[in-house]
Design brief:
single chain; alpha/beta; eight-stranded mixed beta sheet
């Protein structure tokens, strides 16, 4: 099946200007990685022009090779012990009042990177006491004690993406697991954190499967939802099955709100960390 060229609603203007350049310089000066660049996010220009970015910790190389993701999966380096201090200083330099932090998956580390995560949150809070922090974490292989290392630092929003429907988990997410992701989310929700998750649409999922996934997320205690269009990073990645229209995204937002989600962002260009 050959997908037609990208529709108009997915075309974005490349931003530049002084604010964009300022953000780029700060990220470079502090030697920081962002998911904006590593994951080829289409919203990078807009976010950087607003002096905002989604920081990615624990290196540039992921130990998993999910078929939707542009992040490199070469052998990763050891965690950088100075990363927390640099990231916190960059948050201060950018004047961010809402900080989004994510990471590559580090199955190579004994604690899957959980202690490093905790240290980063702690340092960002120390240097930026008025800033709220959203964490978009990997699954830590479902180890609740490791999830608790992150939760003990009291992030304002705990985010872990389900990414796709149950039937597409193995072909799209590889080593990740539907039930493990729900377990991670439910564990945080049970401890009264504001829990968030998201799905990509356009991978070949059916409407009934989307409804099941959204219902499962609500049952796990998720209150905040993001739905966006999957865009294949390269011909080597999973192909796009279809372009989902803005009208259909509105319909899914209405459905999600009707089953109890408190906040829903649903549109083609929505990403987990966009426009906070």
């Amino acid at each position: 099946m050959q997908i037609k060229r990208k529709p108009e609603w997915l075309k974005v203007d490349l931003k530049s200007g002084s604010s964009y350049n300022f953000t780029s310089k700060i990220l470079s000066d502090f030697s920081l990685t962002t998911v904006c660049t590593s994951a080829k996010c289409p919203n990078r220009g807009d976010c950087w022009a607003r002096k905002s970015a989604a920081f990615m910790i624990l290196g540039k190389n992921c130990t998993r090779a999910c078929r939707f993701c542009a992040v490199d999966h070469s052998t990763p380096l050891a965690p950088d012990p100075q990363e927390a201090e640099r990231l916190a200083a960059a948050v201060r330099a950018l004047g961010l009042k809402y900080v989004t932090i994510t990471s590559v998956t580090r199955d190579d580390l004994p604690d899957f990177g959980a202690a490093h995560w905790a240290g980063v949150i702690r340092e960002v809070k120390r240097q930026n006491s008025d800033s709220k922090i959203e964490v978009l974490v990997p699954d830590f292989c479902g180890e609740t004690a490791l999830i608790d290392l992150v939760l003990n630092e009291k992030p304002d929003v705990f985010n872990h993406n389900l990414e796709t429907v149950r039937e597409l988990q193995k072909p799209i997410r590889g080593k990740a697991d539907y039930e493990t992701s729900l377990k991670v989310l439910a564990h945080a929700a049970a401890k009264n954190f504001r829990v968030k998750s998201g799905l990509m649409l356009g991978l070949g999922e059916r409407g009934s499967q989307i409804k099941e996934a959204l219902s499962d997320l609500r049952s796990a205690g998720v209150k905040i939802l993001s739905l966006g269009q999957y865009i294949s990073p390269s011909p080597k990645h999973a192909p796009i099955d279809r372009w989902v229209s803005p009208e259909e995204f509105k319909d899914w937002k209405a459905f999600a709100l009707s089953i109890g989600f408190e906040e829903v962002e649903s549109a083609p260009l929505v990403r987990s960390s966009y426009r906070h």
